[in-house]
Specification:
Layout: H1 2-6, H2 8-36, E1 48-55, E2 62-64, H3 70-77, E3 81-95, E4 101-109, H4 113-116, E5 121-123, E6 135-139, H5 140-147, E7 156-159, E8 162-170, E9 184-187, E10 208-213, H6 223-230, H7 235-238, E11 243-250, E12 260-261, H8 271-298, H9 300-312, H10 317-354, H11 366-392, H12 396-401, H13 404-407, H14 412-442, E13 453-457, H15 462-473, E14 478-485, E15 493-499, E16 502-511, H16 515-519, E17 523-526, E18 535-538, H17 539-545, E19 553-555, E20 565-572, E21 587-591, E22 602-607, H18 611-626, H19 637-643, H20 646-680, H21 682-690, H22 695-729, H23 740-766, H24 770-775
Helix pairs in contact: 2-8, 2-10, 2-20, 8-11, 8-14, 8-20, 9-11, 10-11, 14-20, 14-22, 14-23, 15-18, 20-23, 22-23
């Protein structure tokens, strides 16, 4: 290890590059391990299915979801089923006897919940903990928040007016796609939305239906039979253009199944992101190994003396080869130790970026330490094998004659540097494209106002509603307050019905007299009908029902179900519900006087001036009226819309981060390559200077020869970016075009960093005394 201690710059560059790369490999490994372990805690997951459906004209795209009432039909018709469980979520307010209130994420489930899932109960019998309709199980963290160190078992809590008894204490719900971030579990009968429990089985996909099959049975073979059976009684399968097929998704494959969840009960993993992370992590590690190879070979002329001396003293080529391999492994082990420290420090940031509760402690399990050791050994072997072969084959006579340096002029280093530039340009181009597309989506015109509007839920009664609105209106930072049942941001309520012989899906929003002003909705026609039973409709609804703009009435419910024509008060321009990727759909808005809207779902508040101060004022008024804290990560409408593209933003940030690391490691590689290349041409440079070439001319020639590699890489990288980003953009109906400036920017940036990386070495070579290189003082 004498060479490493004497050549501190060489050692530092290699160790730093390998440490950063290995730190990323560790972080990616921790994330991948967490993702792969999702739902593995459930021992019956291999025979549990999640019910879902497909809809006509949506291809193979599937959704999970069903209705609570379908269980009695399933259990009575299919002997292969052992038990079922419906699960839904809602946000509620918990009130203690002391009057203290807490916002809680509530999971509503059947009594079979703990018989299907293996969530750990710290207290309580899993077979009986949800036996009573007034039973509730609290997670450990929420119980501590509510009761501190007191034992919660047997205590009473009031959840949105429902008196429930704590019958169990559970560990926090982790490592599962079910109930992520939920803080309490109680009976499904406590769900507030009555249509989710009604015999008509409306809200057809509002719950997740889990089906536990008896051992040895393949329930997926019954999917077609279930579809035919459902068509005999369930409107969701009887009506055209609704559910077309029954899906039975194996629970152990649900997380990466590609199906979408209709109700927010279960989460999904991003398999594409996982694959990209693994691929890019390996690519960065390969970059570091290339740099080690290039930099070690660049030093070969200096190391040849040492190896030649060893050979003359009796060492065999195999001994020298082994020494160089051991040196490489040692460097990788040292880099791994530093990489572990880097990854430990970066773990919280990586966890936030990937929305994953990553724990650095997992590295120090037996399996984790063994994996880290194995990665170090493999990396050391792969990084060191080429330099070891190259240097160990040097013959002492060649070193004495001074011909060894001439022989070290090989092609593979140039190939490596071109490869690095291709990857760097590609990653920069991909990162730029993702950033521009995400910004394009976030700032897309939706057709309704999103600026300075706060939307919050209504946790109280009609008396508190009036007090809250009046208090807000008295605040100078509040321009407008509107109460509603559904907004353009959340999409309101869906009503799917048969009209004129076809299935029509209509979104319904109910607002007060300030609703249109709040969201800046534009009327194209005002029929001047002052009838609160009347409705405003969008142009898409008229088109869907085949009505012209002069129509004065519209029927929104099948006459067989008591539907009657309603007056059309006006027609408003189409707007995109929720986000720009949702196509225009039929929308109905009913405007009612605020005093008649006793229990609105929520409030919309238009602020002016400083938005942070304004929101703090809203929180203060909320606390005063409702006696609880208002906690919302995304209180503003534009923030909520931006959060719709959180996965795109994270993907863009991750690719950008990796592009930055690739640039850093490429810089090290360019330094190694320029050092090696200029050493090979030292005599040529000296001769040119003796014959009259200036330092500037020599520098330009050297820099130009390196930038040629960037040009070659650019030509290859352009079609790579075009292919991958072109395919990626087709996933979005509202997308940017692949501008030539994206490719130019990626190439120009790589060219710029390459220029500065090699400039110092080129200037040093150009300004050196030619006598030193011609005489070769060695």
């Amino acid at each position: 290890m004498t060479f490493l201690s004497r050549n501190k710059v060489y050692t530092a560059i290699n160790v730093f590059g390998l440490s950063v790369s290995l730190a990323f490999v560790i972080l990616i490994g921790l994330y991948a391990s967490d993702e792969i372990k999702v739902d593995k805690i459930h021992s019956k997951s291999d025979r549990t299915y999640v019910m879902g459906y497909t809809i006509k004209d949506t291809g193979d795209k599937g959704y999970t979801g069903g209705h609570w009432g379908i269980q009695k039909h399933l259990n009575g018709h299919y002997p292969e089923i052992e038990k079922t469980c419906a699960v839904a979520t809602q946000n509620s307010t918990v009130e203690l006897p002391s009057g203290v209130k807490f916002e809680v994420s509530e999971l509503c489930a059947d009594s079979t919940f703990y018989g299907i899932f293996d969530f750990k109960l710290l207290e309580g019998d899993p077979n009986r903990v949800l036996e009573s309709s007034d039973a509730v199980v609290l997670t450990e963290s929420f119980a501590n928040k509510m009761f501190g160190k007191d034992d919660p078992l047997g205590k009473m809590v009031v959840v949105d007016g429902r008196h429930l008894k704590v019958t169990g204490l559970a560990a926090d719900m982790k490592n599962s796609s079910v109930g992520k971030d939920c803080e309490m579990v109680d009976r499904f009968e406590n769900i507030e939305n009555r249509s989710m429990k009604g015999d008509g089985m409306n809200n057809a996909s509002a719950a997740e239906i889990f089906i536990l099959a008896k051992p040895g049975t393949d329930l997926s073979a019954k999917a077609d039979d279930m579809r035919d059976y459902f068509r005999t009684f369930w409107w969701f399968y009887k009506m055209p253009d609704c559910a077309e097929k029954v899906l039975l998704v194996p629970f152990d494959k649900l997380y990466f199944s590609g199906t979408e969840c209709s109700n927010g009960v279960t989460s999904r993993g991003n398999l594409t992101l996982l694959r990209i992370l693994i691929a890019v992590g390996l690519l960065i590690l390969i970059f570091s190994m290339m740099n080690y190879t290039n930099l070690t070979i660049a030093q070969s002329g200096y190391r040849a003396k040492e190896m030649a001396t060893r050979r003359l003293l009796g060492s065999q080529r195999g001994d020298i080869f082994l020494k160089l391999i051991m040196e490489s492994v040692f460097l990788c082990l040292l880099s791994m130790v530093i990489g572990i420290m880097f990854s430990w420090a970066a773990c919280p940031f990586a966890g936030h970026l990937l929305d994953s509760p990553m724990s650095a402690k997992d590295m120090f399990s037996a399996a984790g330490l063994l994996s880290l050791l194995l990665i170090s050994l493999v990396t050391g072997l792969l990084a060191g094998i080429v330099p070891a072969v190259f240097i160990s084959k040097a013959k002492p006579i060649e070193v004495v004659r001074g011909t060894f340096r001439l022989k070290t002029k090989t092609v593979f280093s140039k190939i490596f540097i071109v490869f690095q530039n291709i990857a760097t340009i590609s990653m920069i181009g991909i990162a730029i494209t993702m950033f521009l597309q995400t910004r394009h989506l976030i700032h897309a015109p939706l057709g309704f106002n999103t600026d300075s509007i706060v939307e919050i839920g209504n946790p109280g009664d009609s008396t508190q509603k009036e007090a809250f609105i009046n208090e807000l209106k008295a605040q100078p930072c509040v321009s407008l307050v509107s109460c509603n049942k559904g907004t353009p941001k959340d999409g309101g309520n869906n009503n799917t019905t048969m009209l004129n012989g076809k299935t029509v899906s209509i979104q319904t929003l109910i607002g007060d007299q300030d609703f249109f002003r709040m969201y800046g909705l534009k009327l194209t026609r005002d029929n001047h009908i002052d009838d609160q039973n009347g409705v405003y409709v969008n142009q898409e609804l008229l088109s869907e029902l085949g009505l012209d703009k002069n129509s004065r009435t519209v029927q929104l419910t099948d006459s067989r179900w008591g539907g009657k024509p309603q007056p059309i008060r006006g027609i408003f321009e189409n707007f995109h519900l929720r986000n720009i990727l949702n196509r225009n759909v039929p929308v109905v808005i009913q405007i009612v006087d605020r005093k008649y809207m006793k229990n609105p779902w929520g409030f919309s508040i238009l602020l002016n001036g400083d938005l942070v101060d304004g929101y703090n004022t809203v929180k203060s008024v909320f606390r005063k009226v409702y006696h609880q804290e208002l906690e919302d990560e995304h209180p503003f409408v534009d923030q909520v819309i931006a959060s719709e593209y959180e996965s795109e933003r994270k993907m863009s940030a991750i690719v950008g981060l990796f592009a930055g690391v690739a640039i850093l490691i490429s810089l090290l590689g360019l330094v190694a390559m320029s050092t090696y290349y200029i050493q090979q041409r030292s005599k040529e440079i000296a001769v040119r200077k003796v014959f009259g070439s200036t330092g500037k001319q020599v520098t330009v020639k050297l820099v130009r020869s390196f930038l040629m590699y960037v040009a070659i890489a650019f030509v290859i990288a352009v079609p790579i970016i075009w292919y991958f980003m072109g395919n990626w953009l087709t996933n979005y109906s509202y997308r940017i075009k692949l501008s030539p400036w994206i490719f130019i920017a990626a190439g120009a940036f790589t060219l710029l960093i390459s220029f500065f990386a090699i400039l110092s070495q080129s200037l040093k070579a150009a300004n050196a005394d030619p006598i030193d290189d011609i005489v070769e003082k060695e």
